Amino acid sequence: MRSRKRKNGEARMEACGDLILPFDKENITPVSLSELFPGKKNFRIEIGCGKGAFISGMAQRNPDVGFIAVEKIGDVMIVAAEKIKNSETENVRFLCCDAVHLEKIFEPHSFDRIYLNFSDPWPKARHAKRRLTYRDMLERFKNLLSEKGKIEFKTDNRDLFDFSLIEFEESGYVLENVTFDLHASEWAKDNIVTEYEANFSAKGFKINRLEAYLPDKS
């Protein structure tokens, strides 16, 4: 589905400029998280932040953590950035780019958490390689995760979830806290509900969730 063009998009983006990291895929500039978030030692990233409900709630819950919110559709990212700016939350920065570029932007093993919330399912089999939980992307994420880091993934799409369970395991990840009905599970109390999640849960869709980490090599 094509995103609706936001009114006064350029002006709105400029107004949130202090929260948005510059990005040029032809001339990628590395980002130092310790310089971006002085005094912070723990960093997390959401890939596909949408309109920002999750990253806003998570950042306010964890003020000692520096958060990167990635969204490849600028007109969607505007809404999330405005939400953060209006709430005066200071520990979030935004990046408008495709996830394939992240390895070149951030230092290896920088993130304690990678959040994948309601990623595009790319339902046609021929598009499987575009899914964020396809094994090639999961290999890339290994370079972003810290030694004890985790990926947290949730989706309403059961086909994507079943596909992802296989991809994570085939890629060498260990799975834990897997549920096919998040809102009826023990993890519901700590769950931050995204706009998309609230909409589809209200329509009766069950939310699937998992955590994945790499085994200790020691």
Describe the protein.
This protein has 218 residues and is an alpha/beta fold. Helix content is 32%, strand content 21%. It contains 8 helices and 7 strands. It has helices spanning 9-15, 33-36, 53-61, 74-87, 102-105, 135-144, 158-170, 195-202, and strands at 42-47, 65-70, 92-95, 111-117, 145-155, 174-179, 208-213. Strands 3-2-1-4-5-7-6 form a 7-stranded mixed sheet, with helices on both faces. Helix 3 (53-61) links the parallel strand 1 and strand 2. The longest helix is centred in the middle third of the chain and has 14 residues, at 74-87. The radius of gyration is 17 Å and the shape is globular. The mean pLDDT is 94.
Structure keywords:
218 residues, alpha/beta, 7-stranded mixed sheet, 8 helices, 7 strands, 32% helix, globular
What is the topology?
Layout lengths: L8 H7 L17 H4 L5 E6 L5 H9 L3 E6 L3 H14 L4 E4 L6 H4 L5 E7 L17 H10 E11 L2 H13 L3 E6 L15 H8 L5 E6 L5
Parallel strand pairs: 1-2, 1-4, 2-3, 4-5
Antiparallel strand pairs: 5-7, 6-7
Helicity range of the residues? Answer: 25-40%
C-alpha geometry? globular
Portion of residues in beta strands equals: 15-25%
Q: Looking across the biggest beta sheet, what order are the strands in?
A: 3-2-1-4-5-7-6
Spans of 5+ residues with little confidence (pLDDT < 50)?
none
